[in-house]
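Tip: read the tokens left to right.
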């Protein structure tokens, strides 16, 4: 019987050795690839963090510039309004040369009246523009569940 089937002890040794080698053959390569992929992932996270920080700095810079620009525009509007007020006050008072309202020429009186009407119209138009609120579209009125909150 032993000659027919052969020695089982020698046969077990020859088949287990190559299988053990094949199981551990891919392990070093997979370990290196795993470490390499996690290294690349770490680099990606670091780069994204620096990109986000630079964008945050840029947004802060733009916000500061925007507030400065708004302040400059507001100051220019105030200066224009004070100049318009002074001009209207000078136009309504008699001139310092001794002329009274009745002694002014009709063309000067008409131009002063036109300037005053124009300024009043602009003030009314400015007030109307501030009070106008755009209406919501019908599609927005139907679905209030999806209200987006943005920062």
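Filled-in amino acids:
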């Amino acid at each position: 019987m032993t000659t027919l089937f052969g020695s089982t002890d020698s046969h077990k040794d020859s088949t287990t050795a190559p299988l053990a080698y094949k199981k551990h053959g891919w392990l070093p390569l997979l370990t290196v690839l795993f470490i390499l992929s996690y290294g690349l992932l770490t680099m990606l996270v670091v780069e994204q963090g620096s990109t986000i920080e630079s964008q945050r700095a840029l947004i802060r810079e733009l916000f500061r510039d925007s507030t400065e620009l708004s302040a400059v525009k507001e100051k220019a509007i105030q200066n224009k309004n004070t100049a318009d007020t002074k001009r209207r006050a000078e136009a309504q008072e008699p001139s310092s040369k001794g002329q009274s309202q009745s002694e002014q020429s009709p063309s000067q009186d008409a131009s002063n009246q036109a300037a005053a009407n124009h300024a009043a119209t602009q003030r009314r138009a400015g007030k109307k523009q501030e009070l106008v609120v755009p209406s919501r579209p019908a599609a927005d009125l139907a679905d209030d569940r999806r209200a987006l909150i943005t920062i």
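The helical segments are 2-5, 8-23, 27-92, 106-131, 138-142. The two ends are 85 Å apart (CA to CA).
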